[in-house]
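Late entry, NAI complex.
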Amino acid sequence: MYQVLAADSIKEQGLQPLLEWKHAQVYMGGIDSGLVDLEKVDALLVRSTTKVTAELLDSMPSLKIVGRAGVGVDNIDIAAATKRGIVVVNAPDGNTISTAEHTFAMMSALMRNIPQAHSTVKNGEWKRNQFIGNELHSKTLGIIGLGRIGSELAKRARAFGMSVKVFDPFLTQERAEVLGVQLSTFDNVLQEADIISVHTPLTKETKGLLNEKTLSQTKKGVYLLNCARGGIIDEMALAHFIEKGHVAGAALDVFEVEPPGDHPLLKFDSVIVTPHLGASTKEAQLNVATQVAREIRTFFENKPVANSINLPAMSKEIYEKIQPFHQLAKEIGKIVSECHNKGVNELTATYSGTAAELETAFLTKALLAGFFENRIDVKVNEVNAIHIAKERGIMVGEKVTGNSFGYANTVTVTARGDGEAFTVRGTYIENYGPRIVSLDGFNIDFHPSGNLLYIQHMDRPGVIGHVGRILGDHDVNIATMQVGRKEAGGEAIMVLSFDKPLSPEMIAQLESLKDIVTINSIIL
Ligand SMILES: NC(=O)C1=CN([C@@H]2O[C@H](COP(=O)(O)OP(=O)(O)OC[C@H]3O[C@@H](n4cnc5c(N)ncnc54)[C@H](O)[C@@H]3O)[C@@H](O)[C@H]2O)C=CC1
Ligand SMILES: O=C(O)CCC(=O)C(=O)O
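Prediction complete; structure with ligand written out below:
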């Protein structure tokens, strides 16, 4: 039973995919609520209030997935989660419309002094002359960051007769044309816009994007909006520019520190604020909670998650294609590790045929997960595999080749270290399954699953018989047996499979047989 902690105020109705699932126990309450032992929590759901720090992650050793019921993941230490192999998923589009609508509402309110006028009427005043506003029509709106929310805002602004200039380094001219906006440089947006709204994530590139220097490039009388993340507009610089009358007003839904407390920006009448309400609608909260609950369930059902921050996104169709190779790569990684239980400082994966057409980086991560599984006690998966390999000084290489050795595809893994190399090659045969077709240079053909024994021996008469006799004496049934050799009388290998693993005593007895070189047990 997976223990799921839904911290922050996540809409219960949206958690249905988990609440109705018999394999999950959902607790709704804050991190400190004591509802569940944090050490036992498998999945954590948060909005923006809970700060998922490295320290919090450390206190949750069973945690496998963090779900962010929203877009911005700046409250989650992604690097720390990735290092631990914890998958982070979000709900990227469930609150787009709500946030765009809120931004538009803030813009209208700012231009027509609605919050200020509202307060005076509530206070028994009637000051019609004090609140002369500005029309949106014919004004230029500058949007910085034309992603989901920026695009929806642009559509609404166009409908109100505004002209829209955007800066987004990742936007194509074609997309700008479809949206009827003018793709501009950052400087051009600063210089030409009457109102500027930021809609980027908060990153080290966007932190302080609007600062003393860039604000000085804006039109005198400009209005600013931040319904994205506190800090994209430098708060002290903004206060300074309002103070000196350069910025006419600002609408802020977000702050660097939330709640902002006694903040200098709050003393200006021309600054209107909301307490991070962009996504606070019934619809958005239902959407994001449902999206993220589905993702968590999908993850535990071993299916591909659609919106992971630290795993590649994959459609169901792609997942179905890649899944058998993913399994094969992981098994080959394990076989390499078990059969070549020596120091390794280089692992190279070579893909051919249909395997080479897939997302090979994902397959390489799966092979690393298999390789490390019995080598280290850290849980290694596709999220942290590359990080762990780097940390352990293993160089990971990836190649694609046109040589498929007569198969429709191959996945070949070579481990190198201390002047030795060990190679395993496998293939996936449609409607038949995965096969290992080469082991340390020996041609062979076996199904990589169950309890296997890899025996290196000299190709002498009687060896196979002696092995069979010892196993028979212990009442052990050999399920399958494959042999391979390079030349008569030279080195040879056997791969046997059993219904249950052999005891260490039995393996020791087999090792003592004449002409046996090494024996490795592989459990897949
Ligand atoms: N106030 C609220 O309640 C909410 C706030 N947000 C915030 O809004 C942000 C945007 O959300 P979405 O539109 O869904 O994200 P998105 O990922 O669809 O869009 C972000 C856009 O910013 C652009 N961008 C990135 N770096 C840039 C840079 N240096 N300069 C200019 N453009 C840059 C990207 O190319 C992308 O098009 C989120 O990151 C989140 O922080 C999101 C939802 C609710
Ligand atoms: O209401 C919330 O959870 C915050 C929404 C938000 O800022 C986001 O989705 O990035």
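Residues 390 and 480 are 38 Å apart (CA to CA). Will revisit in the morning.
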